[in-house]
Structure formats: C-alpha cells, structure tokens
Design a protein that fits this description.
The chain is mainly alpha-helical. It is built from one helix and no strands. 97% of the residues lie in helices and 0% in strands.
Length: 76
C-alpha cells in the first residue's frame, strides 16, 4: 500500500510541477507581449507628438519671419 501511495503522490506532484511551469511560461509570454504592445503604443504617441511639435515650431518660425518682414517694410 505504501509503494502505491508514493507512486501516486509522485505522479501527482510531477503533474502539478509540469502544470505550474506551463502556466508560468504562458504568463511570462503574455506579460512580454503586453509590455511590447504598451511600448509600441507609447512610441507611436511619442512620434505623433514630435510631429505636432515640429509643425508648431515651423509655424512659429514662419510667423516670426512674417512679423519681422512686416516691421522692416513698415520702417522704410
């Protein structure tokens, strides 16, 4: 009876360990995928923000040049 119980317990713990490793692997893979997705979203947002800031800087530079040329034309 003792031998059968030990075999059953060993089989149970081997199955539990295998299931635990499989679950940890799946969770780790899911975590990496979520992290990668989040980083991609942030990079897209950062790129969009850089584009918007660059266009506003160009617009501001054009407005300053227009203002400067109008002041030079008005002083003549």
């Amino acid at each position: 009876m003792g031998y059968v119980l030990r075999v059953r317990l060993a089989s149970f713990f081997a199955g539990a360990a295998t299931s635990s490793f499989a679950a940890l692997y799946i969770l780790h893979r899911d975590y990496k995928l979520a992290h990668q997705s989040f980083n991609q979203q942030l990079n897209d947002l950062h790129g969009s923000l850089d584009t918007r800031v660059s266009s506003l800087e160009k617009l501001l530079e054009n407005l300053k040049q227009t203002e400067t040329s109008q002041q030079e034309g008005g002083t003549d």
